[in-house]
Amino acid sequence: MLFAVSKPIIIPKMPVLWLRYAPKEHSELLSHLQKQKWHVASKNKEIKMSENSFPSWLSSRNFDYWSKGEHKIMPQSFFEKWARGEAILLDVRYSIEVDHLHLPFSLQIPISELPQRLSEIPLDKVVATFCSGGDRAAVAYAYLQSQGFENCRIFKGGYADLMAELMPGKLRKLKYMKA
Question: pTM for this structure?
Fold first, then answer.
């Protein structure tokens, strides 16, 4: 079988290869790659492969990992890092939610668009995932971690804790930290 490499894509710390192939080779190629333990996604005569898949990320997270709470960031800690330019808030809510409560200091990428928009997320900052209730933030966190974003955390507390950090006295403190 001969395969031509097409459109390489770079995802942080995740080896990826794109291939184009003839339709009759589809099942044989997929079968071979899956036997080799590659994570395979196939669409429109293209195959995306990576050996660093979500299952391998998830299996590496044990009780100690989750019990330490290092996968979360407290609002106060986030805003201190944000004021120093060391963090961004990744808002994974949908536009209907953002229309009702816009967070101008956040990077807004709806959760369903996250895979296509990874390149917009900086690798050199703490990325705090945020949504109204926490479920989508947790999913976004797990996805980003599995894609090599090691400095990603879940913003703890949703709306209530976010609003508590945006009170006038705390905003004043952040203003001076940023200066």
Answer: 0.67
